[in-house]
Amino acid sequence: MSTSSSQTTPHQLDHHNQQQQQQSSLTQVLKYHKETKHNFTNYARGPHNLDWANQPNPFRHYISSPLIPLLHPPYTNESPLYSSIFKTLPLPKPISQSTISQLFYDSLALSAWKSTGFSTWSLRVNPSSGNLHPTEAYIICPPIVSMSNKGFVAHYAPKEHSLEIRAQFPSGFLNYFPENSFLIGLSSIFWREAWKYGERAFRYCNHDVGHAIAAVTMAAAGLGWDVKVLDGLGYEELQKLTGLEMFPKFEIPSRPIKGSMPEIEFEHPDCVLLVFPSSVNDIEVDYKELSCSISEFSGLDWKGKPNVLSKEHICWDFIYRTAEAAKKPLTMFNGSVVDPFESSGTFSESSYKDLSLREVIRKRRSAVDMDGSTEMDKETFYQILLHCMPSGSRDGEKHVRQLALPFRSLAWDSEVHAALFVHRVVGLPNGLYFLVRNENHLDDLKKDTRAEFKWVKPDGCPDDLPLYELARGDCKELSKRLSCDQDIASDGCFSLGMIAHFEPTLRSKGSWMYPRLFWETGVLGQVLYLESHAVGISATGIGCFFDDPVHEVLGLKGSKFQSLYHFTVGGPVVDKRIMSLSAYPGPNDDA
Question: Compositionally biased, Polar residues: which spans (predicted)?
Answer without folding.
Answer: 1-11
